[in-house]
Design brief:
Radius of gyration: 28 Å
Oligomer: single chain
Distance between the termini: 73 Å
Strand order of the largest sheet: 3-9-5-6-7-8
Helix content: 40-55%
Amino acid sequence: MMHQRFQGQGVDDNPELARAVEQFEHALDTLATVSDFARAGHLPRLFNATTRLLRLPGGAEHLHGHAGRFDSAGVFAGSDWDHPARLQPELSRGSLTGTPEAIAVESLSRLRMLAIAEGTHEHPEMDAAAARDFLERSLVHNLDLMLVDHSEAARAAGAQREAVRNLLAFELDRLGGSRVIQALVGEADRILEQRPIDIAPVRHLLIQVERLLERDLPDSDAVERARFLVSACRGPTELSAGKVDDYVVAFQALSTERREEELVALGETMNATGLVCPAHGALLRHLAESGSERDLALAMGLDNVGADSLDAFEDLSRALILEAVWPETAQCIEGLSNLLDRGMLFFPPVPHALWRLTRLDPLPDVSEHLREEFGHDNPPSGRSLLLAGVISVLGLPLGVSQGNNPTCQSARAISLWAQCDPGFLLELVTWAARDGEIDLHFEGDLIRSSELTEGLIDDFHTELDIVSLLLVPHLDKIYWEMGRRIAGRGEDGHRWINPEFHGWWVHRGFATTIEYATGAVIDFAGFIRRFHAAYHPYYNDGAELIYPQPAGIVATDPFGQFVGWHAIAIQRVALDPEGVMRVYFYNPNNEGRQDWGNGIVTSTRGNGEIPGESSLPFEHFCARLYVFHYNERDLGDPLAVSDDIVGAIADAVRDSWAADKAWHEVVLS
């Protein structure tokens, strides 16, 4: 059966393009006629023709013209791409930077998605809105692949990189720059609302936005927001957006009224976005040397508590700024502002520990490591970087992330110490920087990180905040050693490790629904009743959490399938603005917005969350919980929880991560 050929532009005027189109069409026609058994032998020819066509101007347009035939021709048969609804935009980068075959099939899949999004092709698994959402989110993660890369790796893969660059440019043109800007800005805002310490991913997004803004785009709310976020990075005022080296002199030349306007703009923009420009760092250093206390408060956007903190600890605050804040480390100003607003300096150990850090000289290899990983051509000293990192963690404890490491326990510990025991955290930082080791006690025995070699980390990814970069390698080895010491006890080791690893404020009451020896679900009804009696205000006489508590959840994918065990911290339990009881928790994963399947989608905004918190309705949280600690003195009556509540949660678990697990309930006589 012959199909009408797609007539794009430029074929008659470009013999090379015409030959490439003919080769692709012939390969596609042949693939559509062969048997399933023979299909695999014909795909390489189609993929080669795809890559060749993508490298030519106008090639993506010709491929797109045939997108409606890809499914019926069997291009994706038997592969992950055969089910577009299951594809995840966050994972598309692996294919776009993979083998030539992976690039080709991903390209054809994306062109099919584009046809679905534009309404020229229909697929039973995906509608136009879902296809457009996939492409826009994927472009968010891959826009840098549109840029010319002069690295050795890019030159070695030049043909493939050129093909991907042309493909993404074609998608961007068809989807429209304004729509992509809207997606990019939305993604940046959703990340910034969580106030992470490491905002490099957001700055990367905004670099792409800045390039798109160079196009002639119609005005819109998204474009206006994009310009605002870019200006927050570059400088929110005309003066601060200029050369950093000239900023302080230009500021001094302003009238008193204009100076105040400049300071207010810097502080308010930082508080509104979580972004700090380099000029802000230069100016704050100047103010710390010769500015008034009021000027410092305005520049940092302090609230009443922050202003009182600055007044009570002015000498320390100025010393911290002069040591830690530079144009290169200006982002830590947000941490300092939050540290002051949270009244952290009124914790007796904190001022003394911070004064000590202003005088500490880290070990040469520690300083070198921090400076190498900081990512600037001329980074500040190791001491400055260390202090900037400490300020950020104390100010933004819920912004600590494990990065791409299996170290959720260590990241959680740093966050919890910053909230509950900041003096101890600062002591650990001092030890690690000055001595190259830390030590913790476990059941009366001292464990030194310098005496250990094993841990959970095989390949340490360093895209972390400074404090995590310093402490996690030590903490990981100590956590591993604690696990080794409890091996053979026949129970979940978190019962003993969490209170020793995290601190005295972790409750000794412990519950799990996983039988350690077999992996079976055991006494789930009792487990859920006990969690309600310990944490739900309606069942524990309204006893609120005093200290956040470590807990373990079952990580699942968007289809509810088991992924693994994950450490989080329960921050609080409270009614949201709509009157729904929710669990608010800290997730050390890179992203607090997660789809755990079966309608369980974590929220980071709009439901009463403070920046950095994730939340779920209480019953949804129960459906992913498997370990928790509780205060036995504040435990309510577990039997007050109805069978209907327990049964609904149990059904959700049986339909998800426990579908293949043995299930043993305890029968009460």
